[in-house]
Amino acid sequence: MLATPEKILTFPPKLRAADVAYDAIESMIVTLQLKPGSPVVESELVERTGLGRTPLREALMRMSSNGLIQQMPRRGLIISDIEAAEHMTLIETRRVIERLIGASAARRATPQHRKDIIECADKMLVAAKRNDLNDYMAADQALDHVVHEACRNPSAVAAVIPLIIKCRRFWYAFQHEGDIEEGARCHMLVAKAIAKGNEEQAAKAADGLMDYLESFARKVIG
Question: In the UniProt record, does the keyword DNA-binding occur (predicted)?
């Protein structure tokens, strides 16, 4: 059963309505409930998320600006395609930003951030052992929220978010090629390094996570 927007809406509780809408739509894009090339129907999103048109439109504008949704002549908004051929350069770019975010989070995270980061990573491990892909991806999204808040670098966060969503969708689309427990282990190494406040180790663990995603992508692309 696919993850419902309601499950995603629980992470985290302090989001603005437009951020909640963004997360709900992200979940639907990542899990292919909104398929590549399919039209974006505003009334359908209102019904499926239970959210108002104003926050949904703001979320759609953000997704359009970062390439997750495209404006097509005579077709309106559609979900962007999965570009397998460009995926390796996407990971290459994400690697640089994730190293910065990991190191920054290790340096700047509050004690509560560090606790929450470990809890989210632990949820990923538990979900992976149960092979529960929906809980795994919800915990992954929650972990990103906390790490991004902890790093206190909005420019880096804004740059990495569309890359993360595209990576998640790619992983979900070709999950049969992946090792979910290895993915959870890589995330936990990042979480532990940040929780310890070790900047160098956090950057190295971020590299390890990108190595995992790169290896997975190579299996898919061939």
Answer: yes
| Alpha-carbon distances, residue 37 vs 44, 62, 127, 215 (angstroms) | 16, 18, 30, 27
Our separate counts of H helices and E strands in the chain read: 10, 2
- The predicted model scores a pTM of 0.82
d(CA 23, CA 51): 12
Distance CA 7, CA 196 (A): 29
Higher pLDDT residue, 154 or 133? 154
pLDDT digits (tens, 9 = 90+) for 96-107: 999 999 999 999
pLDDT of residue 176: 66
Angstrom distances, CA of residue 73 to CA of 23, 43, 44, 70 = 27, 20, 21, 10
Place of tokens 């949704």: 69
The two most distant CA atoms of the chain are separated, in Å, by 53
* Phi and psi angles of residue 109, each rounded to the nearest 5 degrees, phi first: -65, 145
Pair 42, 61: CB distance under 8 Å: no
Q: 66 phi and psi, to 5 degrees? A: -105, 10
Buried b vs exposed e over 86-97: b needs ≥16 C-beta within 10 Å? ebeebbeebbeb
Query: Partners of 79 in the beta sheet?
Result: 69
For residue 4, the 8-state DSSP code is P
Residue 28 to residues 5, 11, 17, 36, 219, Cα–Cα distance (Å): 7, 15, 17, 11, 25
